[in-house]
Every structure is written in structure tokens, then in C-alpha cells.
Amino acid sequence: MAKRFFGRSFSWAWLACIPLALVIVATWNTAAHAQEDAITPENVQFVLDNIWVLIAAILVIFMNAGFGMLETGFCRQKNAVNILSKNLIVFALATLSFWAIGFGLMFNEATPVLGLGNFFLSGLSADEPYAGNLTAPVFFLFQAAFAGTAATIVSGAVAERIKFVDFIIFSILLTAISYPITGHWVWSGNGWLGALPTGGFSDFAGSTVVHSVGGWAALCGAAILGPRIGKYQDGQINAIPGHNMSIATLGCLILWIGWFGFNPGSELAADAAVPYIAVTTNLSAAAGGVAATFTAWMMSGKPDLSMIINGILAGLVGITAGCAGVGFFGAVIIGLISGVLVVFSVGFFDSIKIDDPVGAVSVHLVCGMWGTLAVGLFDTSAGLFYGGGIGQLISQVIGIVAIGLFTVVFSSIVWTILKSAFGLRVSAEEELKGLDIGEHGMEAYSGFLKDTSDMGGVA
Amino acid sequence: MAKRFFGRSFSWAWLACIPLALVIVATWNTAAHAQEDAITPENVQFVLDNIWVLIAAILVIFMNAGFGMLETGFCRQKNAVNILSKNLIVFALATLSFWAIGFGLMFNEATPVLGLGNFFLSGLSADEPYAGNLTAPVFFLFQAAFAGTAATIVSGAVAERIKFVDFIIFSILLTAISYPITGHWVWSGNGWLGALPTGGFSDFAGSTVVHSVGGWAALCGAAILGPRIGKYQDGQINAIPGHNMSIATLGCLILWIGWFGFNPGSELAADAAVPYIAVTTNLSAAAGGVAATFTAWMMSGKPDLSMIINGILAGLVGITAGCAGVGFFGAVIIGLISGVLVVFSVGFFDSIKIDDPVGAVSVHLVCGMWGTLAVGLFDTSAGLFYGGGIGQLISQVIGIVAIGLFTVVFSSIVWTILKSAFGLRVSAEEELKGLDIGEHGMEAYSGFLKDTSDMGGVA
Amino acid sequence: MAKRFFGRSFSWAWLACIPLALVIVATWNTAAHAQEDAITPENVQFVLDNIWVLIAAILVIFMNAGFGMLETGFCRQKNAVNILSKNLIVFALATLSFWAIGFGLMFNEATPVLGLGNFFLSGLSADEPYAGNLTAPVFFLFQAAFAGTAATIVSGAVAERIKFVDFIIFSILLTAISYPITGHWVWSGNGWLGALPTGGFSDFAGSTVVHSVGGWAALCGAAILGPRIGKYQDGQINAIPGHNMSIATLGCLILWIGWFGFNPGSELAADAAVPYIAVTTNLSAAAGGVAATFTAWMMSGKPDLSMIINGILAGLVGITAGCAGVGFFGAVIIGLISGVLVVFSVGFFDSIKIDDPVGAVSVHLVCGMWGTLAVGLFDTSAGLFYGGGIGQLISQVIGIVAIGLFTVVFSSIVWTILKSAFGLRVSAEEELKGLDIGEHGMEAYSGFLKDTSDMGGVA
Fold it and tell me: Where is the signal peptide (chains A, B, C) (predicted)?
């Protein structure tokens, strides 16, 4: 618990260029001492910016618990260990792959298409401003949490039938390569989508950059895997109820508060806009939850808890692109439409026999695209409904299409290679018996008696 | 992820008065630019105040997960989906109704009895100081989270027998009208309870304004609904054990940390008093937990987990009014008495056949009143035991009675109207079978085998 | 919700020395008013330091939920209420005993071996800087949360067979006496381990001070208690699977984010090093999780969820001592080795028939010692691999041995006294039936049908 020093070395690679390092360290020390010794308003603001975004990053990392509980609860108990394992290891993998490769591809500014340096965070100071006032460590942690989110979204859509090893490899490649490249186009200093002639593509906190990327990858995975046994049988769509609505609801509430890191943290600074963004985010979540509840209630005659949950998440995904630029009424309208959309979207994907056990594609892809378009309509300075013309809306469409195309092509290639290398899908016997025994050799709820009627007589 | 602008419009209503708006916006821009451009200590403190209260608001919003898990775990599995649905949608409803109506009734200063403006946050700046240093968005979010808490308290007491639609309508009316009006009396700039001749009614973070209001509404609901089938049968009080003590305990721990937003956040600023309040809060929670544990242990011969949980919550509710004004020993005494009170209170309400499945009335109403009175005894500047005379204690009694009366009258009227409009209670058959199937058409724990002996042979 | 005042009395003892107090208060008031009235950069930094460490304390307190869910999930459902009760009450007990005695023993600087004052926080100002810029309340809350962590670690290792009363008394003594004394040696201003001639013993956030202390106490308890019935039977090591992997995984993720308070908060200030510490912490956690996953996968043929969980925790414990002083590659190596160590350690303790149901000794003691040693190897300014010589490593060994010896002697004495006073272990019949019924008279999952084959025919 002592005061820390500056110029700590970031990697052993550094040791190889000691002379250069010494010069740099010497310079840094001077600057840093000057900065640290005097307590100026600028320095306090610098620290406040970094501490706030660190707290936001912690909230986003907490979303791993939210996704884990949500996706596990929405699936069957015989696959719970498998889903928990995927959702737990995925943030560990994302952290390492984004540190090694992803961050450099995404934020190094070598080219407008992808970055070509700063791998392993090499060449970046530990405590000097790097992105605005943010130091490289805090900016990295926040962005790594975002990368992990994109991968976690995939987990739900491919649940209950994918082999563990395939998911692991896909997650590494998504967070190391695909997500960073498309992210570079929007959020790096010189990405090509940020410089469109119709106005820069605008995605404040990632409706497209994070959520629709995860959604596209999930859709490709679910499509290539095919539906779970029994889902579309005898010409019917059979509901396969989740095993634990308590943890699913807990997951939704954790995600809700995690989003207060996701969206307001994307301001990447501590200022008066941060709480404003929290309010638009909250209004849209509330509106999405209410809209989905009543839509489902009217359609099925009963308020469906899974639709309340997905409605709230839909509202959160929908407002993510525009949370900083829309007004309160705009936020409520975006949320309401998200909540209605998600109910119909779940029905739509079932009708075309894309089996997405948790509704990840409907929440993250469909509402992610809607939210990105909504910026072109409701942004108070550039939106069509606020006198901003059609330019922003065109940019939004270009961004959605470009990022979608890249992600679909990348994902399809990877899923296809994995399919031929290992096979994507567990055996029918293992699927019936549950992936927990087959893939992990354990069960999630030892000591409880279960209904084994869906285990095909093999349990 | 770009810097935000000022004077963004709050609602379409604004667009109708563009000329006026332009003048205001022009003025704001000047002031705001001046404020933003220069990094002064005052500006950094302004940002710090707003960021801290935002974080506190997030912690309070997280309490929805705490209440959700606690109340669901304390009830039976056949009603879990229903309770989860109520506790999830209630914050969405509270957000929208408090935004539309409640905030204006509570904080607009038109009259000492209720506010008459600022509905939909109209007329308030997005990033200028509004309450002390807080901007309107962050102040709104914090207060909306409080309003949601009052409504959530009701959910537990009416659980396992109320119709979903009634709870929804009651929650909207409580957060839009009743809670804001009584809250106005205490926490607005000109409420009449804040100006009593015996000294202003003092309720720092809401033992009365939030918890006893929720508790009174819960008590009225539980009384009008009547007890669950089988609770008081054959002249006996039959324990109806909860179905999931793991999530109930998790809920308690989430509420514990949520209270570190609730109480310290009520300072409404970032200063050195904030951690002091966290310590009094924590000491009282600990004392409440220990006192309830040993009281229950002595009375029943065994340490009862549900009493450990309720004792901690009792200590938290008890310290809420006085957390900023009492000393550490005062906090411990308040907590100890809260912990003893809650054990006897649970027994008392059972003895008069008020069936409150989770003990919400004992925790929030009884300990809320005790905590409010305790300010008049233990406050280091105004309390009777610290030489402050009897005046503060008299003010506390007046506030408790006035707010209690209003809430009881309002709640009774609403519950009675709802009873004649829709019926409050599900059918006996549905109650036996569980509200999950009857109200929502799904079950919480699909795939597990359950004991159906309490389902009246209808499952 | 009003501005707070200074010089509020901390305890009734104060009242006995009013004349002295008046002088002190008068002086404070002057200084404090000067400080409060002017908003200077120094004052804003002061508030920021305190608010940040408060938030870190809240995250550490949240770890109680993490440990509670983890340990409960890893055990059998018939003992869930017992474990939940222990993990819930332990933080209440730790708060009160650390307030009354522990804090004074640990941080009062009377002697190099233990403190002799400031009990009940007496004699400390409520809002003046006490430790660096931190006020006594926030420093106390942060440290009380740490003390609670040490006690919570014990709970898991002694689970499923210890009497509730023994655990309670042990926890009080550990947090009031043993933990504070060894902690004083390292973290007080004048502890003897901080002044070793080979260089001060370095344990930034408590790999040894917190985790190995909890681990040693846990090891002694598990050894004296003996294994659970059936664990080592017929010459075999029988797996006793946990009952709820969902909450165990949730617990791991809560602990992960709690560690972002534990380690970065140990900077005890808000500065640019804080997010750096968060990144080393996260990298080590990720590396630990990945290493344990693949080690277990290679050894058993399947990726074991409990090893993913324990690997992440191992990485977190391992980096705790060195989080502020190692580089990113150092952090990853520390985490990788932690993840491998924990897998083999779990096997080792089973081979010597120490029954630790949740792996607490392997995670907290083994990786705590490893992480403390690692400072002597990887610290960029003092570590052997970075040209710092052997001195730091020697200091680390001395600290590990001294603290370990003290804790083992203390724990063994207390466990032995408790054994002769109350008996440590529940009866065999109660153990088979489950401690929930025997110790608490209730069950955790009422309404679900359970497999009673391990209940010895008594249920």
C-alpha cells in the first residue's frame, strides 16, 4: 500500500531496448513528477476522469455475471454447467486476446482499416493521458470489457448444442481479430466509417460496434449449428422452457446496472453529460420493458416474464448508439419501439427455424440495428426528425451494412472451418443427456431430483 | 464517444416555444462554455458531486435485484415467476411515472403541499446545477430509484395471492402521486414538514419518506387481501417456508451494498461526510443482524437464517433517517433495537393475522418509524439524549403520523377501488396451483421435480 | 439531506473529557472550516481520494455475496442454510469486533508488535485526514471489509460439519485479535515486518496479510475437524459434488469484480496507478482461469467448471501482493502459475486427507504464499528477475513464515479450546441429515424433491 512509481516497464520486450527506454523513462519521470507534485485542477480532473471510467469498466465487467445468469437461466438444467463455463471463461479469453492482439488492431492508428501496433500494450505509458485524459490501462480495461461483451452475446444463441472447444476458439478469434477491425472503423482516431462524406457514422456506445457484431456472429452460429433436437418438430414450434427464472431475472437486473457503465462510461470522461446519458439509458430500458410486457400480454393473453426481461434488454441495446445525443422523449420512443420489435423478432426467427435459445439475436442484432438507425432519426443535432437532414441516416445505414457484412463473412468462415476441424455440434445422444455430463463430467444441481423426460431415455 | 453539447431539448413541447428557447439556450451556452472551458476547482467539484451521486443512484437501482431475490426466495417456488415479474417491471413503471408526474409533484416548489410543474422534467437544464451542485438528470435518477424502492417494498407483503394487474396499477399510482406528495412535505425546498415550529422534521435518507411509506402501503394491501390459504388454519400460525434461501441471502447482501448508495448518496454531494454515513449505516446493519440472530436464537432455540436477514435489513432501515447525524454508538444502539424489534414485530403481525410473507411491514414500517423517532433521541445536535430537548422528537412524531395517515388513506382508497374493479385476489384454485401458471403461463424451475402437496391436488 | 457538521462525538467516552474535547473541537472547527469553505484543488483531491476508497470498500463488502454464493454452491443443498448463515453473519461480526478492538490493535502505532489505542475508533476525527488523505471512517470501513474477508475464507474449509456457535466465536477472535496483530506488522506505520533489514516485507493488497491468514486458519480448522463422512472411504477420494453451480459461478464473478475494489482500492488514494493495478489484477485473473482450465482439461480429459472458478480466484489471490509493482507480463506469469498450482494443490490436500469442501486452502493459502513470493521475483523495482537482488525475496519468506506461524498457533489454540468447550463437530446423524435441519431448523430449498441417498437413511 505505497505510492507507485512511473515508467514501470510494460513487457520484457522493453528490456531489449534499454537505452531508448532510459531516455523515455527519464523524460516521463520529469513530466510525471511535475504533474504529480502539483495538485492542480487539471490534475484532479485527470484523476477523476480515470477513476470514473475505471468504475464504468467494473460495471461493464459485471455484465459477465448478468449474461451468465440470464443465459443459463433461460436454458435447461442439464446444460447449465456448460453455459456457465462458457460465460465464465470467455471474459478471461477476451482479456488475454484483446491485450495481445485486439487492442492494437482496434486503436493503433496506422491505417483507416486496421491498426498495426501497440500489441500487448507495448509502447504505451502506464499513467500518462492516452485517449483524451484516459491512461492506456483504464482505456484498455474498458475496451476489453466491451470486447468480452460481444463474445458473450454469442454464447446464448449457440447454447445447448455447441462443443465447448469450438466456442472457445471462436471467442478468441472474434475478440482478437473481427471485433477489433470493425471497431477500428468507428472508434479509432482514423477509421474510415468515422470519415464518411455524409457525416461520420455515429455509434456512441456500441449498438452496432458491440451488440450487432455479437448478434451477427450469434446468428451465423445458430444458423450453421441448426436447431436443438425437438425445437421444430412435427411442423410445430415447441417452447423449451428455461430452468431457472430467478437467476435469469437477476441476470437482467445485473445487466441493467451494468449498462450504467456501458453507456455513460462511453463518454470516456467525467463531466455533466455522464448522468444525462444514464437517464436516457434508463428511460429507454423502462420503455422497452413496458412495451414488451404489454405487447406479449396482448398477443398471448398473459404477461410473459421472459418477454419483460428481453424487453428491458431490447430498450438498453436500442438506446446504446444514441444515448448521448437524443432527448428524453426520443429515448422513450426508441425504447418503446425496441420493446415491440423484440417480441415480433423472437417470433420471426422461430418461424424461419433459427433456434436462438435466449433471444440473443433479437435483442442484440435487431435492436442494435434499430438503435443505430434511430440516431439518424432522433439525434437532436443530426437526426432527420430534428431538422438534421438525411445525411446521418445514410451514414448509419452504410455503417450497419459494412460492419454486418464483415462480421457475417468472418463468422461464417470461422464457424465453417471449426465445423470441418472438430465438428460444431455434440452428438445427439449427448445433446439429449445434456452437455454437462458429456462435455464437463458434472451436473449443475446435484442432489435435486429432475424430470428426465426430455433426455431421450439415455439418462 | 464524443464530447456532448449543451441545451439539448428535453421534450417536443419545447419545440413549440422556440423563440424563448433560443434566448435561454444562448444564455446557457455562454454560461456553460465559460464553466466547461476553464478547469477550475469549483468545476471539478461540480463534476465529482454529480459522478458520485450517479454511482449512488446505480447502487440504489441495484437494490431492485436485492428485493427481487429476497422476496422471491422467501416465497414458494410455484409463485416465483409472479414475484420476479412484479419486482422487475416495477422499476420500469416507477421510472416512467416518476419522470412523467412524480418528480414534478415532489420537487417543484409551487406550494408547501405539492409541486405543480416540471412534469416530464420540462423546463430543467440538462447539465446546469439544479439541486445544490447536482444536475437535474442525476437528481432525477437518484430520486426515481428511491420512488421505485417504495413500490418494491409493497410487492413482498402482497405476494403469493395478488393479481398482477392490480399490483401494476397500484405501483404506478404510488410512485406517480402518493409517494411524491408526502416526499414533497419533507425533501422539497418548501414542504410544510420541513418548517414545523418545533424544528424541521428530519429524515436524512428516508426511514419514513421511503420505507414507512412502502410499509404502510404494504400493510394496507396485506390487510385488505387477507392471508394466504392455510397460513392461519385450525387456530394455528403455520410457517410457509421460502423456496430458495440462497437467493434470499444474496438479496440481503445486495441490499446491504445498495444501502451504501441509499444513505451516503443522500448527502447529495461528494464530501467528507459521505464515508462517515457509510460507517454509521454499516454499524447499524451489523448490530441489527447480530441482535436479531441472538433474539431469535434465544426464543426458538436455533439461529434462524430468515431472522439474520431481516435483522440486517431492520438495522439498515432503522439507521436511514439518522445516518448522518448520530454517532457510532448511537448507530449501534439504533441497530440493536431494530434487530430486536423486527423479531417481535413478525410475531405480532402473525398474531393479528396480517399475513406478510417476507416480513416487509416489520422491516420497513416498524423499523422505519423507530429509526425516525431515533433521530429525536440520538442526533448529536438535536437529539434528546444529547441535550437537544424534546422539540425534534415532537417533530418526528408529527411527521410519522402525517405521512402515515396520508399513505394509509391513499392506499386504502386505491386498493378498494382496484378490488371492486378487477378483484384483488386470484382464485383459490389458482392460489393453490401457483400464480406462475395462472397469471403467467410458465413455471420458474422447469425440469426439477417438486413437492405438490400444497397445491390442493390441482397441479 | 443537509450539510453535516464537524466534531461530532465518536463515543460516550468522549463525554467524560469534555474540556479537552472542547479545545480539540474548537481547533478542528477552525481548520475544517478553512478547508471546507474554500474549494481548492487540494480539497477536491481530498474528497476524491475518500470517495474512491469508499467505492472500493463497497466492492470489497460485496465480496461477502461472492464468497457466500461460491461456498454455498460448492456444498450440498442439505447444508446450504448453514453456510449462508455463516457467510452472512460473519461480516456483521467482523464489523463490530474490528470496530471495538481489531482496528485499534492493527493501526494504532503504540508498538511495532501491536497497537494499544483507538478502540471503538475513539480519539479519531470524523472528517480530517487520518491515513494519507483518507479520513478515519473510510479507512476503517475499507479495513473492516478486509478483516471480514479473512474470516469468510475460513467458512468454506470447515463447511458441512462445524457447529455454528464455534464458527461464530472463531470469527470474532480472528477479526478482533489475530488478523489485526499480524496485519499490524505489515500495514501499520511502525510494524516490525515493514522494517526488515533485507527491505520491508511487501504485500500491497494482502496475499499474505489477508488471504494466507484466512487460509492458515482454514487449514487448522479443517485439519482439527477431520474430513466429512464418506469423503475418504474405502481408501478412495470420493467427490462430493456441489449442489448449485449457477450460484457458485455467480459468486466467482462477484468476487472478480470485488477484487477491483480489493486491489486498486489498496492504493488508498485516487491517482493514475489505480487503473494500472486493475489491469494487472485482471490479467492475472484471466491467466489463472485459462491455466487452470487447461491443466484440469489435460489431467481429467474434461474442462471442469469448479477448476475454472478456482483458477480465476487463484489468479486473483496470486496477484494481490504484487498488483501495483509488477509489469503486465509479470502479472500474466503470476496468474498462469497460480492457475496450475491450484489444480495440483487441490489434489495434494485430498491426498493427505485434509477435506476442504470448496478448495479455500488451495486458493487462499497456497496462491497467497506464491503471490507473496512472486513480489520478490517480479517486482519491477525490487524483484530478483528485474535486477533487484535477493533481499526482497528473503523479506518475503520471513513475512510469510512469521505471519503463518502466529496464525497457526493462534488458530490451533482457539480451535482446540472451542473443541473442548462445545465440541467442534456436529453429530454424525446431524451431518448425514444435513446441518440445515439440525442447526437451523429449516431447509434451503423447500418444495423441491431431493435425492436423500447421502442422508444415511435418517431424513
Answer: 1-34
Residues 290-309 (C) with a CB less than 8 A from some CB of A: 290, 293, 300-306, 308-309
DSSP element (H, E) containing C458: none
Q: Which of C307, C328, C329 has the highest number of chain A CBs within 10 A, making it the mutation to test binding with A?
A: C328
Contact yes or no for A91 and C300 at CB 8 A: no
- C340-364 pLDDT, tens per residue? 999 999 999 999 999 999 999 999 9
pLDDT over 80 (residue B32): no
Q: How far is residue A437 from each of residues A85, A229, A441, measured CA to CA in Å?
A: 13, 17, 4
Neighbour count for residue A345 (Cβ, 10 Å): 22
Q: Is some CB atom of chain A closer than 8 A to the CB atom of C78? A: yes
**Could you say which of B44, B68, B164 has the minimum Cβ distance to residue A41?**
B44
When pLDDT is cut at 50, 70 and 90, the band that residue B455 belongs to is: confident
**CB atoms A272 and B135 under 8 Å:** yes
Lowest mean pLDDT, pick from A402-411, C173-182, C439-448: C439-448
- Which pLDDT band, with edges at 50, 70 and 90, does A456 fall under? low
A322 exposed, middle or buried (CB, 10 Å; 0-12, 13-18, 19+)? buried
What does the pLDDT look like over A170-184, one tens digit per residue? 999 999 999 999 999
What gap in Å lies between CA B107 and CA B276, rounded to an integer? 27
Give the whole-angstrom CA distance, residue A366 versus residue A315.
11
Distance CA(B54)–CA(A281), nearest Å, equals 13
The CATH architecture assigned to C42-440 reads Orthogonal Bundle (1.10)
Q: Give me the pLDDT at residue C455, please.
A: 77
Which residue type sits at C125? S
CATH architecture of the domain formed by A41-233+245-440: Orthogonal Bundle (1.10)
- Rounded Cα distance between A311 and B139, Å, is 26
Per-residue pLDDT tens for A227-269? 999 999 888 999 999 999 999 999 999 999 999 999 999 999 9
Judged by a CB distance cut-off of 8 A, whether residue C327 touches chain A is: yes
Which residue of A14, A51, A426 is the best one to mutate when testing the C interface, meaning the one whose CB has the most C CBs within 10 A?
A51
Q: List chains touching C (3+ CB pairs under 8 A).
A: A, B
Task: Check A305 against B64: CB less than 8 A apart.
Answer: no
This model of the complex carries an ipTM of 0.92
String of DSSP letters for A257-309: HHHHHHHHHTT-S-STHHHHHHHHHHHHHHHHHHHHHHHHHHHHSS--HHHHH
pTM value is: 0.93
pLDDT band (50, 70, 90) for residue A455: confident
CATH 3.40.50.20 for domain B41-440: no
Q: What is the 3-state secondary structure (H, E, C) of chain B?
A: CCCCCCCCCCCHHHHCCHHHHHHHHHHHHHHHHHHHHCCCHHHHHHHHHHHHHHHHHHHHHHHHHHHHHHHHHHCCHHHHHHHHHHHHHHHHHHHHHHHHHHHHHHHCCCCCCCCCCCHHHCCCCCCCEEECCEEHHHHHHHHHHHHHHHHHHHHHHCCCCECHHHHHHHHHHHHHHHHHHHHHHHHCCCCHHHHCCCCCCCCCCCHHHHHHHHHHHHHHHHHHHCCCCCCEECCEECCCCCCCHHHHHHHHHHHHHHHHHHHHHCCCCCCCHHHHHHHHHHHHHHHHHHHHHHHHHHHHCCCCHHHHHHHHHHHHHHHHCCCCCCCHHHHHHHHHHHHHHHHHHHHHHHHCCCCCCCCHHHHHHHHHHHHHHHHHHHCCCCCHHHCCCCHHHHHHHHHHHHHHHHHHHHHHHHHHHHHHHHCCECCHHHHHHCHHHHHHCCCCCCCECECCCCCCCCC
